[in-house]
Amino acid sequence: MLHRLWRRLWRRQDASGTQDPSHVLARAAFEDVLTGLPTRHVAFERILEARRAGVRGLAAMADLDHFKQLNDSFGHTAGDEVLRVTAERLQQALPDGGWVARMGGEEFCIFLPGLTQAEAVAWLNAANARLSAPMDLISAKVSASFGVTSFVGQSPDNLMSACDLAMYAAKARGRNQVVVFDDDTRAVATSRRELAATVAELQQRNQALLDEARTDALTGLRNRRALDEALATAEADQIAVAFLDIDHFGEFNHLHTDTAGDAALRAVAAAVQATIRQEDQAFRKGGEELVVLLHAADPGAALAVAQRLRQAVQALAIPHAGSPTAAVLTITVGVAHASAKRSVQQTLEAAAALAMAAKRNAQRNQVHAEPLPGAG
User: Fold this and answer.
1) 236 contacts 299 by C-beta, under 8 angstroms
2) pLDDT of residue 370
3) Can you give the CATH number for the domain in which 133 is found?
4) Residue 194 shares a structural domain with residue 75
5) Cα(272)–Cα(194) distance, rounded to whole angstroms?
6) CA angle (371, 373, 376) in 5-degree steps
7) Is 185 part of a structural domain of the chain?
8) Which Enzyme Commission number(s) are on file for it (predicted)?
9) Are 161 and 147 in contact (CB under 8 A)?
10) pTM score
11) Please, which contacts does 83-87 make with residues 24 or more away whose CB atoms are closer than 8 Å?
């Protein structure tokens, strides 16, 4: 059996008295390194052996209360000490054939053969009292929530499930207590889990609503609301703004219908999203105006991205018979850099001004950037 192999591995040593290195990793599967207790694997095998042997008794799951807060307050070294001392105190006064295993984290499984339910509950209450005694490295009182159930030949999975449900019920009732598994505890724990699932679902729905409120319905890009939020929080250092305006878009809608205009906007947005870098953000500001925030982009990199954006839109080859600029749909791009002297919002306004000036001066389907630093 698994736990017999576990014991044999402990005894195997080489001639020098040092444990065989080939079994160090195997040993870790059977003995918890921190507490020295048997692991979950050994616990499940022992439960199977007890089931085959017809052993009767009780099993319990113990979970230390507020262990995360304890770790946060006193540090992981103190948390490890709590786990070691907990293991020692849970092993005190075990009945014949009884054992404790660490299941993972701050959870422990306790097997109490030959005891009645009343005796097992009394033993667990006494164990919890031992846990509350002072420990080194921390000043807080330690306690646990225990879920206990009768062992009458269940499979390990069913036994652990019943113990878990009772332990969750103990936590729901205020922690630091022993709860016996029955129909009432099943109902309490189930409702608690259902509530947690409901809360998680509501959180997901709320996030979906938040995302929807910040997404442009037509193009799928982030919308003006999301842009305003990004401008308010973006760091001015090493960020550039590209302002994109679709050339002669009013004429496009007039000649090709609004439906075709919507399709063109979606195609342009998709091309922009596919062209920008992973760290960049694309927004539909409104109408035929798009904005791209270029993060960690020096002037040269920002200019290169802007040129790729212009080329990607022209490569869509969307016919535009009403454009005096080109036979296909094109964009004009203004690029500006934020700095310590102006905000990202002001940088957007500067990029937009470059694009608008280009339109007035018949310089569409081009990228217009501010002079590079040091340019004469």
Assistant:
1) no
2) 84
3) 3.30.70.270
4) yes
5) 43
6) 65
7) yes
8) 2.7.7.65
9) no
10) 0.50
11) 83/34, 83/35, 84/34, 84/35, 85/135, 85/136, 86/35, 86/131, 86/142, 86/144, 87/32, 87/35, 87/36, 87/37
What's the structural domain count of the chain? 2
Q: 202 is written with which tokens?
A: 């509501």
Q: Which two tokens stand for residue 317?
A: 């080859």
Q: 360 is written with which tokens?
A: 């007035």
HEC profile of 46-79: HHHHHHHHCCCEEEEEEEECCHHHHHHHHCHHHH
- Residues listed for the chain: 376
Residues forming a β-bridge with 337 = 240
* pLDDT one-digit tens code per residue, 153-197: 778 888 888 898 889 888 888 999 999 988 776 676 666 666 666
Task: Count other C-beta atoms under 10 Å from residue 299's C-beta.
Answer: 17
Q: 174 with 228, same domain?
A: no
Residue 4 lies in a domain: no
| Shared domain check, 167 and 296 | no
What is the Cα–Cα distance from 2 to 44, expressed in whole angstroms? 9
Strand 367-369 with 331-337, pairing:
parallel
Residue 164, domain extent: 31-201
Residues 138 and 256 in one domain: no
